[in-house]
Design goal:
Strand content: 15-25%
Number of helices: 11
Helix content: 25-40%
Largest sheet: 7 strands, mixed
Order of helices and strands: HHEEEHEEHEEEHEHEHEHEHEEHEHE
Radius of gyration: 22 Å
Structural class: alpha/beta
Number of strands: 16
Length: 377
């Protein structure tokens, strides 16, 4: 660790000295000194060294603070978002190199700025949110191109909640359906009492779609406030907060509501428990959008299952719908605009201190959340 940090420090000084010689100005050298002196050498972070259950997420107080690199900033985090994809990384379902700092969603203030980031107008003290790996920590190195400026009037907790869940809901309701659903047509969204699909239900309505939502009885009060045209309230699996998708014939209900037509789009983050329901609820040339595995991964199925209604299926991810800076900022700006106009009702369910990292994952995986779950840092 010491050798690595000394190399990083010497490299930064070398770059600064070369810039000083080239420009005959001490600005580059003094800039690096100011940036480095303001950051501690180590920090608190929730780290995975071996994949496993929630207790594989260990809080360490002496993890190396990331070095400031060209084109990046260092963000001092106030919040980190907890998302199901973080649990997939922790369990090894989506492999990552070990060890790693958990999380991929954060919000806070800029603590140090590279010359390249400064040239883009980014300043120490700016309020920002972002999505990059390593947010379960006091400090995170973030490429300038990944920063989302947080406008006045939007809290950092709300902005942090927006980054993964809000942006995911945005692409699910605006892009992933490939325009196979039009305004006035029906959309089925599973689990609208939880985080991402609370956003998705509201955004689908803003797009002019008619929405059928599913939720558990324990999350009915939250779901009632989302504007769904129809809400299917399910029993809970005994001993859990999860919807029991066998407690109601959802396909029959969908067909009754839609006069036998079905839904042009089905947004499904549940996975294994709902795949048959989702496929059965499709309209002619409708699209099944499978974006999560809350109940387990969707098992393989023959493509011939789609022939009955000439259906479509997609398994998208956020990174492929924020491929450029313009696309990322465009989505975020629309979401922040809706928030400021009061068109989105965002629920921050629970905030855990980072010291209780394992408890945060256990809470999410138990299906208890009725909105966004965060760590405070």
């Amino acid at each position: 660790w010491l050798r690595t940090n000394l190399i990083n420090l010497l490299t930064m000084f070398s770059v600064a000295l070369r810039r000083t010689a080239a420009t005959k100005s001490p600005n580059a050298f003094s800039f690096v000194c100011r940036s480095m002196s303001s950051l501690p050498e180590t920090m608190k972070a929730a780290v995975v060294r071996e994949v496993g259950d929630a207790h594989a997420l260990k809080v360490e107080t002496d993890f190396p603070t990331p070095a400031l690199e060209a084109g990046k900033v260092i963000v001092k985090n106030e919040y980190a978002g907890i998302n199901f994809i973080d649990t997939y990384h922790r369990k090894g379902m989506y492999p990552r190199d070990l060890p790693f700092v958990g999380g991929q969603e954060g919000g806070g203030t800029v603590a140090a700025v590279s010359d390249e980031a400064a040239a883009e107008g980014i300043k120490v003290g700016d309020r920002v949110a972002y999505s990059v790996f390593g947010s379960y920590a006091e400090y995170t190195a973030v490429p300038a191109a990944k920063l989302l400026p947080v406008p006045e009037g939007v809290g950092l907790d709300t902005a942090t909640a927006c980054v993964v869940q809000g942006l995911t809901a945005h692409y699910l309701t605006t892009s992933a359906h490939a325009n196979l659903i039009k305004p006035g047509e029906w959309c089925l969204i599973h689990g609208v009492g939880g985080g991402t699909c609370q956003w998705a239900a509201q955004m689908a309505k803003l797009r002019g779609h008619k929405v059928i939502g599913t939720c558990s009885k324990g999350k009915e009060e939250i779901a009632k406030n989302l504007g769904c045209d129809e809400l299917l309230v399910l029993d809970e699996v005994p001993g859990t907060s999860y919807e029991d998708y066998e407690s109601m014939d959802i396909v029959a209900k969908v067909m009754e509501i839609t006069d036998g037509v079905g839904c042009k789009s089905v947004i499904d983050g549940i996975g294994k428990s709902t795949v048959d329901i989702s496929l059965g609820s499709l309209a002619h040339r409708g699209i099944f959008i499978s974006f999560g595995n809350a109940s387990g991964a969707v098992p393989a199925f023959p493509v011939l299952r789609l022939i009955g209604k000439s259906g479509y299926v997609t398994r998208p991810k956020l990174l492929d719908y924020t491929t450029t800076r313009e696309e990322l900022v465009g989505r975020a700006d629309e979401i922040f605009g809706w928030l400021k106009e009061g068109k989105l009702n965002v629920s921050v369910d629970t905030t855990f201190p980072l010291d209780e990292a394992a408890e945060g994952h256990l809470y999410l995986e138990a299906g208890k959340s009725k909105g966004k779950v965060l760590y405070s840092i």
